[in-house]
Amino acid sequence: MIQFLIGQGVSLTKNLQSRWILVLSVNNVGYELQIPHALAQQLTPLPSEPLQIFTYLLLREEQTTLFGFNKLAERDLFLQLISVSGIGPQLAIALIDTLGLEGLVQAVVTGNIPQLCQTPGVGKKGAERLALELKTKLAQWRKLQAWDETTPSSLPQGELLTDLEMTLLALGYTQTEINQAIAALAQSPDLRDNTDAEQWIRQTIAWLSR
What's the pTM? Predict the structure, then answer.
């Protein structure tokens, strides 16, 4: 398998299926990679310096697709997702785009079905199957990623988390922004064990408005 490619970005376009396609020139060979929307945003406009893109080559009888990711952890999460029955590569990309790397892992590990269902194409049964099959695997995998010291128990849970996310999404914040804010504020002793949704909302909005 191709672990990664390092080369010059040649073009970045959205095809007829609304999928982002990056053409990367490596040693005079142009590689076409499908990448998540979040990575496409980072690469707009295309930088002049060489890019390192982590890859996964999907071989099928009807089509061969090379997927590209900004981080090795993101590529590994993609592989975990497509191992679940009913989760194909396009739905896996949509999950990563909708919830972000850490947000998606958090949703699976905590069994946050409403959050998983925010992804277009993911219904309640699919979300439940995803959480059931990957909860333990991703909990163990996350420990190996050297992410921040925020633990699931220090983050808001259940209805509090759902209310917080729904309110902030309605205000126009992205799921990635929300996840970053919650993870940062969970480090605060004043909020760590606080179950007051209004206080969480006020503090999160303040953090996002910095």
Answer: 0.70
